[in-house]
Amino acid sequence: MKKTIFALTVAASIGLAACSNPGDEVVVSTSVGDITQEEFYNSMKDIAGDQLLQQVVVEQILNDKYKVTDEEIEEELKGVKEQYGESYEAVLAQSNLTEETLKTNIRFTLLQEKALKDVEVTDEEIEKYYNQASQELNARHILVEDEETAKEIKAKLDAGEDFAKLAKEFSTDPGSGAKGGDLGWFTVGTMVPEFNDAAYALEIDEISEPVQSEHGFHIIQVTEKRDVKDYGKLEDKKEEIRESIAATKADWNTKMAELIKEADVKVKDKDLKDAFSGIKAE
Q1: What domains are there in the chain, each with its CATH number?
Q2: Which of the four, 70, 127, 189, 222, has the lowest number of CB atoms within 10 Å?
Q3: What parts of the chain have a pLDDT lower than 50?
């Protein structure tokens, strides 16, 4: 379990849900005056209203859709204790947590993990991944900043100019440019997704059209392909591949937006009406 569990807000314990009907009942009494439920509720809204409401609502949704057992929590807690060893109690104290509140944080983290794994992965995606992962590619590329330059270089290649020479002249990739664009052997997931899919779609010696990625525009040529030794059959790898694909799709902000949209959340407190306005599902 990652260290972030020590930083989580324990929404289930202190959330706005506990003050859902604030009134005049006294929460705390002091020599200088009382603090009522309504005053406490309003203070909580001022301090962390939107963020706390989001967490309370998301936790409620997660509790409805997914289950975390005591055994799972204890197993994660055991891992935390092993990770910190003799420093465990000190880390709890520094984080202003008791072991019970740490368990609450662990529970919420496990709920998040279950939600992130709950993504659709199609048979077509699994087969595509398998076909790619069962092969390694040897390729080279020319990387440039803009599409116009990429098209000009592609035209030169189509006219028969030397790939390596053009890579040395034009490529902005500091690692491969000086080597004629050579990237060596690689397998699925090594490159950014756009590059990966374009490369695996090429036949040997075929040169791609310009491919845009976060790095710029690539012109790719696959020079060799080889099977991955003992990779296994599709039916044996299916679940492993499904988990790998699901992990690449895992994005908590996106998942949270989907969950909130499905739950049809309506905020009745006008002071908190914009709490979910910035959370949009695609």
Answers
A1: 3-119+250-272 (no CATH), 126-227 (3.10.50.40)
A2: 70
A3: 1-3, 9-19
pLDDT value for 2: 46
Q: Which two tokens stand for residue 120?
A: 């659709």
pLDDT at position 260: 84
How confident is the model at residue 227, as a pLDDT?
92
CB 1 within 8 A of CB 76: yes
Pairwise CA distance, residues 138 & 180, whole Å: 13
Q: For residue 116, what are its two tokens? A: 């992130």
Tell me the per-residue pLDDT of 155-193, one tens digit each, with 9 for 90 and over: 999 999 999 999 999 999 999 999 999 999 999 889 998
Task: Please report the sign of the dihedral spanned by the C-alpha atoms of residue 73, residue 78, residue 82, residue 85.
Answer: positive
How is residue 179 annotated by DSSP?
G
Distance CA 73, CA 109 (A): 10
Backbone angles phi, psi at 235, to 5 degrees: -65, -30
d(C-alpha 94, C-alpha 15), whole Å? 22
Structure tokens at 31: 């020599």
| Residue-level length of the chain | 282
The pLDDT value recorded for residue 280 is 58
Helices (H), 7-158: 11-14, 37-65, 70-84, 88-94, 99-117, 123-133, 147-158
Residue 239's identity, in one-letter code, is E
**φ, ψ dihedrals at 182, nearest 5°:** -65, 130
For 188, residues 6+ apart whose C-beta sits below 8 A from its C-beta are: 129, 132, 133, 196, 200
